[in-house]
Specification:
Radius of gyration: 28 Å
Number of strands: 2
Oligomer: single chain
Structural class: mainly alpha
Order of helices and strands: HHHHHHEEH
Number of helices: 7
Strand content: under 5%
Largest sheet: 2 strands, antiparallel
Helix content: over 70%
Number of domains: 2
Length: 188
């Protein structure tokens, strides 16, 4: 599983937890404390920093704004912005959290659809490369079988077959690497 998929999942879990708690009547600060205690990666760490600094400084809203400036994960910035607006208005931020969750869900579906198209194209390319390799081997074997005494027909030489098969293996490796990278996986 990739790092970005993990961040996205952590973000969705944090959003759902915040929605549930704020919807049940908890304050934004209580909900943030609860999320900070969970193991939700960057979201929990960010909330922990905000809570710790707000205890020292006394102002949760200003600490959220400071954290927004230092975070480079766009969905987390949006979440912090929604929480800050909820604190500023003194009201609930439940609808903002719901809208953000829906938006992130939609983005994830689009990413997955794009990934599936890329993998399908790569899979088709692998099929064509495999078929090409089989055809080359067949022509090579046919050339070996067409020997009549001193007369022989060589359709494809052995060195050409080796070169084509090495090329096929290279293409296969590159396509598998492409699929792994597109899926966000680590290479080594």
């Amino acid at each position: 599983m990739s790092v970005s998929h993990s961040k996205d999942k952590d973000m969705m879990v944090a959003l759902r937890l915040l929605q549930m708690m704020v919807g049940a009547g908890a304050s934004i600060e209580e909900a943030m404390k609860s999320v900070s205690m969970e193991k939700l990666g960057i979201v929990s760490k960010s909330f922990s920093r905000i809570i710790e600094r707000s205890i020292q400084e006394g102002d949760l809203s200003s600490e959220i704004k400071k954290e927004m400036g230092s975070v480079h994960f766009e969905p987390l910035k949006k979440l912090l912005s929604i929480l800050d607006m909820g604190l500023s208005s003194g009201g609930s931020c439940g609808s903002g959290l719901l809208n953000l969750a829906d938006m992130l869900d939609e983005e994830e579906k689009i990413k997955r659809k794009s990934l599936l198209k890329s993998i399908a194209l790569a899979s088709d390319t692998l099929t064509y490369v495999s078929m090409f390799s089989v055809v080359v081997i067949i022509f090579y074997l046919m050339g070996d079988m067409m020997q009549y005494g001193s007369f022989s027909i060589t359709l494809i030489s052995e060195s050409m077959v080796r070169s084509i098969l090495m090329f096929s293996v290279l293409v296969y490796a590159l396509i598998m690497l492409f699929i792994k990278i597109k899926d966000g996986g680590k290479i080594l």
